[in-house]
Design goal:
The complex is a heterodimer of chains A (686) and B (244). Chain A is mostly helical. Chain A has helices at residues 2-16, 19-42, 45-58, 63-69, 118-121, 124-127, 136-141, 157-163, 172-183, 186-189, 212-215, 218-226, 228-231, 244-257, 281-288, 316-319, 322-330, 348-359, 377-389, 432-441, 459-470, 474-477, 497-505, 508-511, 528-531, 534-542, 562-575, 593-606, 631-634, 637-645, 647-650, 663-674, 681-685, and strands spanning 77-79, 84-86, 296-298, 304-306, 513-514, 517-518. The relative contact order of chain A is 0.07. Chain B is α+β, with helices and mostly antiparallel strands and 244 residues long. In chain B, the strands form two sheets. In chain B, strands 2-9-8-4-6 form a five-stranded mixed sheet. Chain B starts with a helix and ends in a 15-residue tail after the last helix. The chains are: A mainly alpha (686), B alpha+beta (244).
């Protein structure tokens, strides 16, 4: 103790004993303290990068210009509106330098061309990370609470989705992901509230199970529950990895819980359980009725061919009971009043033909190994417990089981989920995107007793879903009014009255959009009454022919009565009109021969319309646009004229370019097109 | 201006690959049990994808012996310029002689030249080069617009969803990857023919004008896309980054 104390005293004496020496020592300390700040700056990372940047531009031919654009010190973009204080440009000096296009090293790359500028939006709005930080690690990789790391480039489109809720042309990955959230039914179990207050709705249409025993057998339900993909490769219902016992009990419950539908007991046609299948007439009726516009069948090569509005029919014979199929084909609304399938008005002979054709689509091995014994009351009760536990009623209507609220965690702000709230798998990188992608890939791996089923998404699909989910951030819900963009307005439009009922029966809106509601397979009919002539529409409903030779999806024929057709035609001609086009403002005929000839010249030379349209099937071959051989008896002149002037104003998604046509040219072309009356099919038949 | 990016980036990447910044192979435990004498592409080359994303199809390379038959158990290593990653970065060939890897593109819009290598018995290295294209936002936008408005005439191939109109045209347009033709046109000429149609360049009116349908940024996006996918690659005039 004593010696060390003595040493201290003597050291003290050495430094401060003499006043002059003391002054010198204190000054030195002061200088060191004062130097800390500049030294910290001098040795800071940003200085280091700025020096590197200067060295990089120094040797380039436009060094002087680049030098002039260079800013020393800390740079900052401050946007109080969006809460951004972004100092990224301190190191990322070359962001706006077009001539640095060849530089691949960061932080000096030029920013790729996007529709927004950094001055307006800053950096972190899109890239996330800590804008105010001035070290590489803190800015990019912070995992502290309330902070987030920089978003990997592969999910970049999610940032567009924070403000943009309608599909952008340049963000296919985001668009696909969002469509999948609805199409794969994710939002049945997970609520996703959008910033505008609306809630995302599913588009997958899972069937009601109230009358399921009418439609199918317990054996089929069992096999389906065990492995939906074995029955249909395009099945959207996921695999719940059920044990044999659980599948046995759920199938037992569903069958015993089912009640008969009112009309199912009385098949339209007396159905023998084995309708003979006609190898020629059956397939051809299936083809003529354009069933494949909505339903797919897997062909011998393994390709699933057809639409995805209705279920895949490759093995439909294994699934449905023949009696039920007869009733369904007779009128699907007897079994399910909300089905998107039209009521075709098939004759009983047609029903028998189609029924036989579909019943033959089966695979004998599919149910070969299913041997279920009669269900016990205990099994049925256990089945009900399982159905409740697995949340089956989130998607399917099941008698006696309430649709659970928020069965899965809400997704409205999943893009801002804190890392601390997540449980990662061993070996996984600890980032939110990796967590989301991992959870979609193997939902059950994250713990025992988890209920989310197993999907079979490709890596690309998982990337798209992750991108979509990352777009639902806190920020997307708290945007300043100036940045908040509306979602696509949803419409509940249903046609009114008797014609409306008829249109519901024919399920027109499964394919056609009208006043904002409906499918997108076929043309929007909102302005159909301004567009087409009454006689043509009436004829078309009787015998729809396709206007575009290259289309594979077509309008089916519904066997309407003359009265029904007249009613539909009248309704569409009256209710579906453009607010800007008066269809009687231009005559259907009576145009002068010189004007018609002038139009013809314009058609073939100046505008070269024949590159996409056919008016004379002997010489023209283009088939991007509809065939125009009879356009003069199909369309109204006023519509054609308006279309010539600005096609996008009438149909925003048409690919016909706007030619910025003069009134004179538009008039001449209208006159020419109105002169094309061809021979109508009816005349040709006679 | 923006459209010149891609081409110059290719040049850089080509150089980078020649030098081949080889990260030490992470999987060192792969020991080849056989050696081939040639390496050929089975599938997965010339794909396009958004920057930073994994390509839709894996890259598959096959190791062959002198007779052209696949060799199982040969070691294939995959290399790429900065930003590219492989999963896995090295693999032993399967029974049919093929090695498969998933490619994740870099963050820059560019043509990336990737190299697969294997060793033959004499320990000599055999290499296979493939090009993959990463589309930035602008090029992706151009690609999407091209698929909507242009591809039916400019792409002779048909799919079930889109029947090509190419055969119906009296004057044949070129595919967008046809660098031999398109590289001869300046950015101004491309913009002009897209905006004002074939007549603007004394070409056929079968090429319609899009200047009143697409806005300026969309036309620029189309040009940027054309420039990036053209094969042989486009080299912008006057874009020589001469070092002083």
């Amino acid at each position: 103790m004593q010696p060390s104390r003595n040493r201290l005293v003597s050291e003290w004496q050495k430094l401060f004993g003499n006043p002059i020496r003391a002054f010198g020592v204190v000054s030195l300390l002061l200088v060191i303290v004062l130097a800390i700040a500049p030294a910290k700056n001098y040795f800071s990372e940003s200085r280091h990068y700025q020096k590197q940047y200067l060295a990089l531009i120094h040797v380039r031919s436009d060094a002087n210009t680049l030098q002039r654009h260079f800013h020393p010190d800390i740079q900052q973009i401050w946007l109080p509106e969006v809460g951004a204080v972004d100092r990224c440009t301190t190191c990322h000096q070359g962001l706006k330098e077009a001539s640095l296009a060849d530089v691949t090293t960061q932080p000096f790359r030029r920013h790729p061309v996007i529709p927004h500028s950094a001055e307006q939006f800053g950096c972190v709005l899109c890239h996330r990370g800590q804008g105010a930080a001035t070290t590489v690690a803190e800015a990019h990789n912070s995992a502290l609470a309330r902070e987030e790391p920089v978003l990997p480039a592969r999910y970049m489109q999610s940032s567009c989705g924070q403000c943009h809720h309608t599909a952008l042309v340049g963000t296919p990955q985001l668009n696909t992901g969002r469509t999948m959230l609805a199409r794969n039914g994710c939002v049945h179990c997970h609520t996703a509230r959008l910033p505008d207050g609306s809630t995302m709705t599913a588009t997958d249409n899972p069937p009601s199970l109230i009358h399921v025993a009418d439609k199918t057998t317990r054996d089929w339900i069992y096999a389906w529950l065990k492995d939906p993909l074995a029955y249909a490769v395009s099945a959207t219902m996921p695999n719940f990895n059920l044990s044999d016992e659980d599948a046995r009990d759920i199938s037992a419950f569903l069958i015993s819980n089912s009640t008969p539908a009112a009309g199912d007991a009385a098949p339209v046609v007396a159905a023998s359980s084995k309708t003979p299948s006609d190898p020629v007439a059956g397939p051809s009726l299936y083809g003529e009725s354009f069933c494949s516009s909505c339903h797919a069948i897997q062909n011998a090569a393994g390709n699933v061919v057809g639409g995805d509005i209705g279920p895949e029919l490759t093995h439909i014979g294994n699934k449905v009971k023949p009696e039920w199929l007869q009733v369904w084909l007779g009128n699907p609304r007897i079994y399910d009043s909300n089905t998107p399938m039209p009521h075709y008005r098939f004759t009983s002979q047609q029903i028998a033909l189609l029924g036989g054709f579909l019943q033959a689509k089966s695979d004998s091995s599919l149910l070969a190994n299913v041997h279920l014994e009669a269900a016990t009351a205990g099994q049925i009760a256990h089945g009900k417990t399982l159905v409740t536990d697995y949340g089956c009623a989130s998607c399917h209507e099941i008698r006696g089981v309430k649709k659970p609220d928020n069965f899965g965690p809400e997704l409205s702000r999943i893009g801002s989920k804190q890392l601390a709230e997540l449980v990662f798998l061993p070996g996984m990188t600890h980032t939110l995107p990796d967590y989301i992608a991992g959870k979609i890939r193997q939902p059950r791996a994250f713990g025992s007793g988890l209920k989310m089923p197993q999907y079979t998404f490709t890596p690309t699909q998982i990337g798209a879903l992750t991108t979509a989910l990352l777009s639902y951030t806190d920020r997307s819900h708290n945007l300043p009014a100036a940045l908040a963009l509306p979602s696509l307005p949803t419409s509940n439009y249903r046609p009114a009255g008797n014609p409306g009922r008829l249109m519901e029966e024919l399920a027109c809106q499964s394919c056609h959009r009208i006043n904002g509601r409906g499918g997108d397979m076929a043309p929007d009919l909102t302005m159909e009454g301004s567009s087409v002539q009454r006689a043509w529409l009436n004829d078309f409903l009787k015998n729809p022919n396709t206007l575009r030779p290259s289309l594979i999806r077509r309008m089916p024929r519904f066997n309407l009565t003359d009265g029904e057709r007249a009613e539909l035609t009248d309704y569409m001609m009256t209710a579906y009109q453009s607010p800007t086009i008066d269809r009687d403002s231009m005559p259907l005929s009576g145009y002068s021969a010189p004007l018609v000839e002038q139009g013809k010249q314009l058609f073939y030379s100046k505008y070269a319309c024949q590159s996409c349209h056919i008016i004379d099937s002997n010489v023209d071959k283009g088939y991007i646009g509809p065939t125009l051989t009879q356009v003069g008896s199909r369309l109204n002149a006023a519509w054609i004229y308006a279309w010539m002037k600005n096609p996008q104003a009438l149909r925003s998604d048409t690919v016909q370019p706007n030619f910025n046509m003069s009134d004179e040219d538009a008039r001449a072309l209208t006159a020419f097109l109105m002169s094309l009356r061809g021979t109508t099919r009816l005349e040709a038949k006679r | 201006m923006s459209t010149n990016l891609s081409a110059s980036a290719l040049i850089f990447f080509a150089i980078a690959t020649a030098g081949c910044a080889r990260k030490p192979a992470t999987i060192v435990s792969l020991h080849p049990t056989a050696y081939g004498s040639a390496l050929v592409e089975t599938s997965g080359g010339k794909q396009m994808g958004a920057t930073g994303t994994m390509l839709a199809q894996p890259l598959v390379a096959q190791v062959n012996d002198d007779q052209g038959a696949g060799v199982a158990g040969a070691l294939v290593e995959f290399h790429g310029p900065f930003g590219i990653s492989f999963e896995p970065s090295a693999a032993l060939t399967d029974a049919s002689g093929q090695a498969t890897t998933n490619v994740t593109l870099g963050g820059m819009a560019a043509r990336y030249q990737l190299t697969a290598t294997t060793r033959c018995k004499a320990q000599k290295e055999v290499a296979l080069n493939v090009v993959e294209v990463a589309l930035g936002y602008q090029q992706e936008l151009g690609y999407q617009l091209g698929e909507t408005y242009c591809a039916r005439c400019h792409n002779p191939e048909s799919s079930a969803e889109r029947v090509s109109n190419y055969d119906n045209l009296q004057v044949k347009p070129h595919t967008f990857t046809d660098g031999t033709t398109l590289n001869k046109m300046t950015d101004a000429e491309l913009t002009s023919i897209i905006d004002h149609g074939g007549v603007a360049l004394n070409k056929s009116a079968l090429m319609p004008p899009y200047g009143y349908t697409l806005d300026k940024s969309q036309t620029q996006a189309l040009v940027a896309y054309l420039r990036l996918v053209s094969d042989p690659p486009y080299q912008a005039p006057g874009m020589v980054y001469a070092q002083k």
